Amino acid sequence: MKPIVEAIKPNIGASIKYAHYTIDNGCNSVGWHIHPELELVYIKNGSKKIHIGTTETTYTNGLLILVGGHIPHEDFSNYDYPNNTETVIQFDAAFAKEQIISFPEFKAISKMLLSLQSALLYSDATHAIVAPYFKAMLGQDSAERLLSLLSIFNILSKAEPQKILSPFEASAKTNLRNVKQLELIFNHVNKHYQQPISNAEMGQLLGMSPNSFCRFFKKMTAQNFKKFLNTYRLKKANELLLQQPISVKEAMCQTGFNSPSYFSKEFKKQFGYSPTKIP
After folding, report:
1. Fewer CB within 10 A of the end CB, N or C, for the chain?
2. What is the pTM of this model?
3. Angle at which helices 260-271 and 225-243 pack, to 10 degrees?
């Protein structure tokens, strides 16, 4: 996988970064990315297959997910419905370590945040309970928004996650050096996916032989690099076809493919429909 290291700064005069997106004002896609901050994402409706580290899952009726820091992941946005909204809240671990933990009333919240080393996917029922808090945030000032966030955290600290998504293979050593190497890989793919990318090129980037790179990538992501790159390019092509007035040939060429028959076959295998029949 390949994460861009996303730079995150809190909103001015606030402890957190809050962002609200709509179909017309969507979150800019950065592909695979990674950041030290924790992240809470609420999506009103729609469905999408998402990737957290080595784990793949699909949400079908909106999304509520809490992601730990230093965990590579893809964008969560979908474009299924014109009334869809997305709220993204990001905050430093110090927010839990130095601020929330100072209040004994928030013991369960601080425990949840400080122990988070994976991604917690919550049920439709929990999604519905917290929905009013996210809706209210849109018109709130920074103090009111923080209180709403604490209310959401309180609910999540008592709720059982529907799924716990592990970011890495159990056998993988997730030390800082390995995370930095993944960052390099993700950043390179995000920038150069339109061009040919070989195992030898990636190995040179990491100071490894091609075979060593392949073993490292498979160990950390549970898939080979060729499959990862192919899937990444197909998703980019699908995004282009969904969001822009563009031909199939243009989408194919802009995402690193050069064989129309191969592109069409792999596209249909990935999404279940032909690139000429985008829903």
Report:
1. C
2. 0.66
3. 90
CATH classification number, 4-165, choose in 3.30.160, 2.60.120, 2.40.128, 3.30.70: 2.60.120
Sheet containing strand 63-67, strands side by side: 17-22, 85-91, 38-43, 63-67, 119-121, 163-165
pLDDT values of the chain reduced to their tens digit, one per residue, 279 residues: 344 444 444 454 578 889 999 987 766 555 677 777 899 999 999 999 888 877 889 999 999 999 998 888 888 988 888 899 999 999 988 888 888 888 999 999 999 998 898 899 999 999 999 999 999 999 999 999 999 999 999 999 999 999 998 765 544 445 667 777 887 888 788 889 999 999 999 999 999 999 999 999 888 777 789 988 998 899 889 888 887 788 999 999 999 999 999 999 999 998 889 998 876
How many other C-beta atoms are found inside a 10 Å radius of the C-beta of residue 252? 22
Outline where DSSP puts E strands in the chain: 4-5, 17-22, 33-34, 38-43, 48-52, 55-59, 63-67, 85-91, 119-121, 163-165
Domain residue ranges in the chain: 4-165, 193-271
